[in-house]
Design brief:
Layout (H helix, E strand, L loop, with lengths): L1 E2 L11 E4 L1 E2 L5 H6 L5 E4 L5 E5 L2 H6 L14 E2 L11 E6 L3 E4 L1 E2 L4 E2 L3 H10 L6 E8 L2 E6 L4
Parallel strand pairs: 6-9, 7-12
Antiparallel strand pairs: 1-3, 2-4, 5-11, 7-8, 9-10, 11-12
């Protein structure tokens, strides 16, 4: 089964096609259904790309451009210096998490989801991660296509 994207969260700019399977639908049912594509606008300003290093892969993180995220979501060097609020991060493929950013390390505080994302995508040293701002406090993370 496919779900539609909430177009009220759209940004002005080029169109992006997006389809997502919901959990609970069997693989057989998914293969029998036709894909429904939903157009969503994404501004070029709402996209950033980050090159992944070997150290990033070994330590389940990648370096974030702090100016891309709201100040309220950026905390100090450890959990005791937490940010004022969290952001929602959806890894494609992967799960959606609520996390904050460590200002001194420039990484998502929740690193296990990053490690799962690396494993599912097969990201290697030198590959790029694509960050997309989908709302004031929501983001998508995916592997940038090579080419």
């Amino acid at each position: 089964m496919l779900e539609k994207v909430d177009l009220s969260l759209s940004h002005p700019g080029p169109l992006r096609l997006h389809a997502r399977a919901t959990n609970g639908a069997s693989a057989l049912a998914q293969s029998e259904e036709k894909e429904t594509l939903v157009a969503r606008d994404i501004s070029p300003d709402a996209i950033r790309r980050v090159i992944v290093t070997g150290g990033n892969i070994r330590n389940n993180h990648f370096y974030l451009p702090l100016d891309f995220f709201p100040d309220e979501a950026i905390g100090g060097r450890n959990k005791s210096e937490a940010a004022a609020r969290t952001i929602s991060v959806t890894f494609r493929p992967g799960r959606t998490i609520e996390t904050e950013i460590d200002r001194t390390k420039r990484i998502f505080r929740a690193r296990s989801a990053v490690g799962e994302f690396f494993a599912k995508t097969g990201i290697g040293e030198g590959d790029k991660v694509r960050l997309v701002k989908t709302g004031a406090f929501s983001y998508e993370v995916s592997k940038e296509a090579n080419g």
